[in-house]
Amino acid sequence: MRTPSSPSSSPSSPSSALWRDTDFRRLWAGQTASQLGEHTTLVVLPLFAVLTLDAGAGQLGVLRAVGQAPILLLSLLAGAWVDRWRARTVMVLTDAARAVALGAAAVAGLLGLLGLPALFVVAFTVGALSVLFDVAYQASLVRMVRRDQLVRGNSALEGSRSAAQIGGPALGGALVSLLSATVAAAAGALFFAVSFVSLRRIRRPESVPERVAPVPERPELVAPVRGRIREGLRFVAGNAWLRAVCLASAAFQLSFAATMTVYLLFLPRELHLTGATVGLALAATGPGALLGSVLAARLPGRLGHGVVLVSAAVLGNGALLCVPALYGSSTATILALLAVNFVFGTFSQLVNVTVMSVRQAVTPHGMQGRAAATITFVGMGFTPLGSLLGGLLAQEWGLRTGLLMTAAGMMLSPVLMAASPLARLGRVLPAPREEPRPTE
Fold first, then answer.
1. Cβ neighbours around 298 below 10 Å, total
2. For residue 27, which of 119, 144, 128 has the smallest C-alpha distance?
3. Residue 26's pLDDT is what?
4. 180 φ, ψ to 5°?
5. How far is CA 440 from CA 80, 82, 209, 214, 218, in A?
6. What is the pLDDT of residue 207?
7. Is the pLDDT confidence value at 1 over 80?
8. How many CB atoms sit inside 10 A of residue 19's CB?
9. Crossing angle of the two packed helices 22-47 and 275-283, in degrees rounded to 10
10. Is the Cβ–Cβ distance between 30 and 91 less than 8 Å?
């Protein structure tokens, strides 16, 4: 199988060569801008619905579920497509389309047409394009760097996501609160446009595994889309580590989606915080996630990947159990929220980077897109249901009780990891299994 030629592909290149690689820096910069646009939008749309359109718990749950539905509908197809396309092309096209979608939302805001129906359309469109982008950027790293640079590369890319978590929520909350949702949507479009420009400047040739593998005279060896999806499902189902990742991720994402739906109502309505303060509180996950990315480049190799996964999940998820105990909008309450979100950001990011490194290490090159998409499908496919569940619990049981119940549900994820082969992973990651043959 052919691999991309690059300075970082040379066996003799040190790990420090990663940051001297111009194309990797362009990938990192584009990823940072794209994530900043995504995290700004994820806060802008719900806050606009709650603060401007006076959306109720059920309506907010539906809005979040609509934005998350593409994960369930498109993840498997995205994996099959990405393994056949150049990841850079996918990322560039999705950035352009998201910029257009949010630009249209800004125009609708200027015309006074940005109501709930329009928000549903924008949320679904941006969510669908983000599914494609997220699968593509994960596959792009594997095609760009050496195996021994994966943890360092993931740490850098996840660090960019952390930077987005710092600026995105705070910027989105401030723009909605101080200016308008129109300005906030326009800011999101601008970030996607910046990412588009940066990613287009990547010049390195990129191999597409399944396009170079089949023999031209044997077109029947090119697996149809359904066949490639089945291969991805079988591969993940047949790997004990990836099966465990799917189960733990599904439990976490279901509970986390429910928690965030209640959380976005709890802060402004129960604690009486302004939109800007809500954005500030959410942004505290960013510095924590930045620290988590740094720790992820060191702790798994020293303590073992299994120990880090389980302990970090317990600490990060458990921190959110403190939020229902808060009352009022005092300085002490805001400081407590900042501390909780910082701790959650640190340890959830440590789990994210470690899980991604495990998945990439045990997956053959030609299966990267489908493995990532299958795990996304199983793990995050429950998020629309979680958002609806969170809205229902908040409506039926109240915000405080609903938040306590959903946060408690997040503790199921570390329990599942502790009972799985993931907990027994040591300091060195296992090698990938033999790559499956194309479906005939």
1. 12
2. 144
3. 84
4. -165, 165
5. 15, 19, 16, 11, 10
6. 61
7. no
8. 12
9. 140
10. yes
User: Model confidence over 165-190: pLDDT tens digits?
Assistant: 666 766 776 677 667 667 777 888 88
The CA-to-CA distance between both ends of the chain, in Å, stands at 19
> Which residue is it, tokens 């910069």?
29
**Cα–Cα distance measured from residue 221 to residue 395, given in angstroms and rounded to the nearest whole number:** 53
- Say if residue 5's pLDDT is above 50: no
Distances (CA, A) of 318 to 168, 288, 340, 379: 24, 15, 9, 20
From the list 312, 301, 313, the residue with the least C-alpha distance to 249 is: 313
- The DSSP secondary-structure symbol of 284 reads T
Q: Are 366 and 139 in contact (CB under 8 A)?
A: no
Could you tell me if 156 and 73 are in contact, meaning their C-beta atoms sit under 8 angstroms apart? no
Q: What is the pLDDT of residue 225?
A: 66
Residue 339 has pLDDT above 50, yes or no: yes
In angstroms, what is the C-alpha Rg of the chain?
21
Whether pLDDT at 134 is above 50: yes
Instruction: Please answer whether residues 27 and 8 qualify as being in contact, where contact means their C-beta atoms are separated by less than 8 angstroms.
Output: no
Residue 47: name the closest of 271, 325, 344, 273 by CA: 273
Return all residues near 148 (Cβ < 8 A) that are at least 6 apart: 15
Is the Cβ–Cβ distance between 229 and 358 less than 8 Å? no
Cα 16 to Cα 153: distance, rounded to the nearest angstrom:
11
- The whole-angstrom distance between residue 170's C-alpha and the CA centroid of its chain comes to 18
* pLDDT over 60 at 157, yes or no: yes
Amino acid at 345: G
Contact 67, 192 (CB under 8 A): no
Tracing tokens 């006074």 back to the chain, one arrives at: 112
Q: Within 13 Å and on the Cβ side, how many CA atoms surround 405?
A: 17
Rounded Cα–Cα distance for residues 298 and 290 (Å)? 13
CA dist 376 and 231 (Å) reads: 15
Q: Where are the alpha helices (DSSP H) in 150-239?
A: 150-178, 181-200, 209-212, 225-237
- Name the amino acid, one letter, at 145: V
pLDDT digits (tens, 9 = 90+) for 43-71: 777 777 776 677 777 777 788 778 878 87
Mean of pLDDT values over 300-304: 87
Q: Which long-range contacts (CB under 8 A, 24 or more apart) does 215-218 make?
A: none
Calculate helix-pair angle for 116-144, 331-362, nearest 10 degrees.
50
Count of other CB atoms within 10 angstroms of residue 215 = 9
By mean pLDDT, which of 10-24, 325-339, 367-381, 396-410 is the weakest? 10-24
